[in-house]
Specification:
This protein is mainly α. It has three helices and no strands. Helix 1 runs antiparallel to helix 2 and helix 2 packs antiparallel against helix 3. The longest helix is centred in the C-terminal third of the chain and has 32 residues.
Length: 88
């Protein structure tokens, strides 16, 4: 059952990567990268359970925090870039 979940997560990660590469807008790409990061956290959590290594969950939580802060930083960067471009 967990292998099916891991396979489904890998498929959605591939689709998110495709969306990040082909997204029509910057915000679609950022959302796809955020989804890819979330799916990575889920995959690491499943692998931690399957391998019997609960210390991997700490890595998954740290990666989730880095993903969240990184997405906020990228969105703030693009928002400032857009507002600076309109002011000129």
């Amino acid at each position: 059952m967990y292998y099916v979940a891991a396979t489904a997560i890998l498929v959605t990660m591939a689709l998110a990567l495709l969306r990040a590469l082909l997204g029509p807008t910057v915000y679609d790409r950022v959302l796809a990268v955020n989804m890819f990061g979330t799916k990575t956290v889920l995959l690491v959590s499943i692998l931690a359970f399957l391998s019997g290594r609960p210390d991997f969950l700490d890595l998954a939580l740290a990666y989730a925090l880095i993903n969240f802060v990184g997405v906020l930083a990228v969105l703030e960067f693009f928002q400032k870039k857009r507002t600076d471009g309109r002011a000129q």
